[in-house]
């Protein structure tokens, strides 16, 4: 898939991002998440990448990994943390000292399985 190079780079220590961009009702959520009935065959990009990530980790004996996940939406130039507390401060996207993108006020829970 289009996300495979991002996953392979991530497994080598490079940060990765996958964007779905388009007008309202263009199918971004379906592309990223898939069928809302969680039909395995119609999974979106995100569940497929997560599945491949954990499969890849299992094939790396002796390597300790901590996997954290964040899930953000940008709508009308406003960031929304889809995993965070709705009452928490609004997420912020900042430029770091070296020109990197840094996120503030986002939930990043540790996950141990693809579920």
From TrEMBL:
- Pfam families on file: Kinesin
Instruction: Please give one Gene Ontology molecular function term for this protein.
Output: ATP binding
What keywords is this UniProt entry annotated with? ATP-binding, Coiled coil, Microtubule, Motor protein, Nucleotide-binding
Which residues does UniProt call coiled coil? none
Q: List the record's Gene Ontology CC terms alphabetically.
A: microtubule
- The residues that hold ATP are 22-29
Gene Ontology biological process: microtubule-based movement
All copies of the Kinesin motor domain together span 1-115
Q: Gene3D superfamilies in the record, alphabetically?
A: Kinesin motor domain
The UniProt similarity line reads:
Belongs to the TRAFAC class myosin-kinesin ATPase superfamily. Kinesin family.
Name recorded for this polypeptide: Kinesin-like protein
